[in-house]
Amino acid sequence: MKLFSASILAAALLAGCGSMTKTAEAPDAPTRTADGVLVGPNGKTLYTFTRDTVGSGKSVCNAQCAVLWPALGAGDMAKPMGGYTVIVRDDGKKQWAYKGAPLYYYASDMKAGDRTGDNFNNVWKIARP
Fold it and tell me: The pTM is what?
């Protein structure tokens, strides 16, 4: 009987994971959509930088910029999927990009749902699917 109860509990828990929406084009994507914006695995809002050239495979936010705007890092084995690509930063680390635009967090966003970096200096925008 305990095995049956554990199976039901596991099924219920897995069913609840369905509310965490991934982007429609890549179900195993490095981001998900929450309230119409892209968020990282930690649930925090992601941003794009208008000074990055979309599709260039480069980020121009390095050094001190990257302290305030940390990259959405990609693992060494990360591979492009759907609208997601992987770029290599100046420091050699990998970063996720969506539709060619590198993705970043804002260090001043303290919790999931914060969007305090939107339109920062008129060059940072919330990333949207």
Answer: 0.80
Beta-bridge partner residues of 47: 104, 126
> Cβ(74)–Cβ(94) under 8 Å?
yes
CA–CA separation, 67 and 86 (whole Å) = 20
Tens digit of each residue's pLDDT (9 = 90 or more) over 5-64: 444 434 433 333 333 444 444 557 899 999 999 999 999 999 999 999 999 999 999 999
> What is the secondary structure of 84-124 as a DSSP string?
EEEEE-TTS-EEEEETTEE-B--TT--STT--TTTTGGGTE
Q: What is the largest CA-CA distance in the chain?
A: 60
Do residues 52 and 102 touch, judged by C-beta distance below 8 A? yes
- Residue 105 tokens, joined: 């967090």
Tell me the pLDDT tens digit for each residue of 58-83.
Answer: 999 999 999 999 999 999 999 999 99
Q: Which residue has the tokens 């991934």?
A: 22
